[in-house]
Amino acid sequence: MATRSLPILLLALLGLLVANLMFGAVSIPFKSIFEGFQVGNANYFTVHEYRFPRAILAMLVGAMMALAGALVQGVIRNPLASPDVLGVSHGAGLAAVFYMTFFPDADIRWLPAVALIGSLIAALTLWWLCGSHSSTIKLAITGVALAALYASCIDFLMLVKPLEINNALLWLTGSLWGRGWNQLSMLLPWLLLIPFALWLAKPLNLIHLGDDSAISLGIKANKLRLASLAIAVGLTASCVAICGPIGFLGLVAPHLTRKLVGGRHQILLPSTMLVGAILLLLADLVARTIDPPIELPAGIMTAIIGAPYFLWLLLRTK
Amino acid sequence: MKRLLLIALSTLLLSLSLSVQAVSSTQDSIKNSVEDSKGTFSIDYVPKRIVVLELSFVDALAAVGVSPVGIADDKDPERILKEIRNEIGEWTSVGTRSQPSLETISALKPDLIIADISRHEGVYADLQKIAPTLILPSRRANYEENLHATAIIGKAIGKDKEMQARLKLHAQRMADFAKQLPEGKEVQFGVARDDALFLHTADSYAGGVIRALGLKNANTGRSDDAYRQTSLEQFLAVNPDYFIVGNYVTPSIVDKWKNEPLWSVLKAAKNHHIYSVNPNTWSRCRGIISAETMGQDLIKVFKANK
Q: Is the bond leading into A53 cis (omega within 30 degrees of zero)?
């Protein structure tokens, strides 16, 4: 199963990457794409400065969000879990909206840093409330409650300062618009988390058998849980800081992958990164080409695909 | 293997981005230098293909008879005043003002981009890679700042003399309008949406135009914002003599309020001093041509009243 799916996923990813370089407000024929990488070419800006970094960023962000989702689902052992239940993206959203409404003249370049701090504070708050020895259910419910609290604070800020609502809403839907090489370089250090996540694959399989069995097999369940969640927080926080909270990706991608390759984490984790990358590339392609030159935020697209899937999942989980 | 690939990829990305920065710093024989929101902007030619990312900049170009090749018009040509549309002719939409399509802008091969510091600061570096970018206040700007920005645009596009003359004519026209308007009357403008009324305070663009026409702004209380969302009760506390409303939708919240008993207590409602105007002209366009249209609107209002 897995051996059949992987090449198909890789091909799909490659195809979408090429499609992302070719299509947009202006279509560029396949042959001209390679010329677009040369300085001075007519398509240099569009291909090299705009579409290429944006597509790479979409792939990385998609992969990281999906990986974070798989890690959270792996340790919380609940199909409805996703990085969202940790309240990390809402924490980032609250920090970003606060910054935008109270410092409208401040430099926009600080926004990723502000969002990152917000999400890390949210994660620390969750840890402080739950400690490292509480049950996963308590963790999930506390996270959801905190996320709801942050969301209502965001609503409050936007209602009190309606002038800034446009900018805030745009950021909160999650978008790849205007993101390029700069944002990509900000994301690069966080890629170091990926090997650590993959290294956790084996113990994650064991914890799936239940805490007692895992402990008897030599797994330090609490430490593993803490490590997985910390990595998931790091991955999500860095992505949200740069693109805003792109909804449902962390929930949908791991599920889709589990359908394709099964639940073994050694296969699941790399495959879910591929699926996440494919989903976000597709979402951004659709967002850019559906009604050019209007650019829709990619976060709207992932939510349009993600929300019905989430409902379907809810209805099936009795 | 994976990590090796990552390292290779990141060095590739780094070297690519470095090579880009080296390209964009060759300019000699500077003709026009102006101060924009990011410092000194210099241009050594008269731009022929201009892309503008806010509506007020269209107004400034049209004032001296220059037609932009691309406008961030939210894909709705009607957002630009009819007079201005007739003046500038055809253009290409480059998408929304909040997220203009950079690839469409690039495809237009502009030689000057005029962007808004409030909306486009985040993509300023990208815009500069496409063409020299003049970045000025628009969205948050008041009347005086707008006039200042208009003068800067005139200089940057090599039409300094024409623009100065046009601004003088504008001041003259505004003074003429002021003469035809009763001095010191209290006028409040607001835009009404389906669910909210936003008063444009003394700090807003419309507030500035109202003052420039010799009229008075109503006291909207706390003056920390250019636009204030107002409930019916708060509006009653402001209680302006004249109320000018721009309805973004009909029926707007003001139409709904008209049936409320509180509404009939308003001074403007009692004396039938409520008028509706085109919200595009009064709120979105923000430029000398729209300011003159606003003056004419007000003259109509006060003439109808006599």
A: no
